[in-house]
Amino acid sequence: MLSLTFVSDKVNTHVLPLLKAFLSHPEVVFTFISCADSAAEDEKKVVLTSEEKGHCLSYSQNPQKAQEIIDHSDVLILGMADPKLLQKAALSGKTLFHYSEHFSKNKSLMPLRYWHNHMLFHTLSDHGAYLLATSSFAPEDFAKAKLYQGRALYWGYFPEGNRSLDLSAKNVQKGAPLKILYSGRLLRWKHPEMALSAAETLFEAKTPFEVRIIGEGEMMEPLKAALKDKPYQNDVKLLGYQSNDVVLKEMKDSDIFLFTSDRGEGWGAVLNEAMSSSCAVLASSLAGATGFLVQDEKNGLAYNDHVSFEKQLLRLARDPDLLNRLAHEAKKTITDTWNAQVAVDHLLSIIPFIQTKKEIPASLIAKGPGTLIR
Questions:
Q1: Using the 8-state DSSP alphabet, how is residue 268 labeled?
Q2: Which of 88, 112, 253, 290 is 20 to 30 Å from 298 by CA-CA measure?
Q3: What span, in angstroms and rounded, lies between the C-alpha atoms of 204 and 104?
Q4: Cα pseudo-dihedral 234, 240, 246, 247, rounded to 10
Q5: 0.90 exceeded by pTM
Q6: What is the mean pLDDT of residues 241-256?
Q7: pLDDT of 35 over the 80 cut
Q8: In this structure, how many other beta carbons lie within 10 angstroms of the beta carbon of residue 213?
Q9: How far is CA 297 from its chain centroid?
Q10: Which contiguous run of DSSP H or E holds residue 30?
């Protein structure tokens, strides 16, 4: 049995599928150590439920026991927590992983960011820790900070979404109005205005469509103002905040999902969810998840700017065969490869090679989450 402990801030919807996959594995004794001083009530309930089973522990409430678990674990994963908690483990030669997004989310003070991250994590890196890259930009960021060079694994967030649903019959028919969805907080760096650009493009192309925008935030009023008096305003619905269940239903009923965030998006779990819902995704190449999840032309389309956004959107609008193929391949990606169970299985397969300092076999290189990036 392998003793594996994940040290992070708190249980939330981003890490819960991963925790369940670790907990259900027959060859792992798994513990989650929460380092948050406080948690929202719904998160606290998850923690308490886990504690009753002995799998989750609050560091602040029982630091001695938490440190004992860390000291006696075979493998440790550091999430959003103080790396000093794992410093002793690093010095003792334990197998360590650092679970992180990229930190170059804007261009300001980058030399300071490289220095700051190097100072925080160099002890882990110097003693052989690996990076669980929760962003396609994370390996480069940490390598520039002289960290985890050549030791980064594909990783991410793994929401279940609509993965368990059979959506094989979902197809868009030629001439039918396109159902287009944006879902996310209405923030400037998420660029929800691109949903209105999509409406403008399709209106000018005389393509029937309906754009639905889910979310709330600072961009709501600017979106309303931009939509006012537009000839297609009745074809664009601003739905405000919706529960995750409603979002997943909307995704299931949509043809195209717009993932429009810039580099401010560390990952973007809505992309996983939309792909699991058999949507054809049009994804910004600047968002953290796109480089890992979207294989351009195979299971989605990526864009770099407004010109390529419009070009790719029109391709989907004019070619239902392309749209349907990309949508079904997107679903297959999440169902077969990019999910918590596959990530955990791959990670557990790679750990013995790390522990024995043996060469990682080709079967565990560049094969999805939990495999080595080359």
A1: -
A2: 253
A3: 37
A4: 90
A5: yes
A6: 98
A7: yes
A8: 25
A9: 20
A10: strand 28-34
Total number of residues shown for the chain: 374
CATH classification code of 178-336: 3.40.50.2000
Domain boundaries, the chain: 2-158+339-364, 178-336
pLDDT tens-digit series, residues 272-296: 999 999 999 999 999 999 999 999 9
3-state secondary structure of 54: coil
Between CA 251 and CA 255 the distance in angstroms is: 8
Query: Looking at residue 45, what is its pLDDT?
Result: 47
Domains 2-158+339-364 and 178-336 belong to one CATH topology:
yes
The CATH number of domain 2-158+339-364 is 3.40.50.720: yes
Question: Tokens 């979207």 sit at which residue?
Answer: 294
- Give the bridge partners for 97, in sequence order: 77, 130
pLDDT for position 41: 40
**CA-to-CA separations, 142 to 109, 133, 150, 163, in angstroms, rounded:** 15, 10, 10, 32
Nearest to 156 by CA among 132, 125, 183, 185: 132
pLDDT tens, 86-105? 999 999 999 999 999 999 99
Residue 53 pLDDT exceeds 80: no
- Per-residue pLDDT tens over the stretch 217-242: 999 999 999 999 999 999 999 999 99
Report DSSP letters for 151-212, one per residue.
-EEE------TTTTS--TT--PPTTSPEEEEEES---GGG-THHHHHHHHHHHHTT--EEEE
Band of residue 61 on the pLDDT scale cut at 50, 70, 90:
confident
With a CB cutoff of 8 Å and minimum separation 6, the contacts of 139 are 131, 133, 148, 152, 373
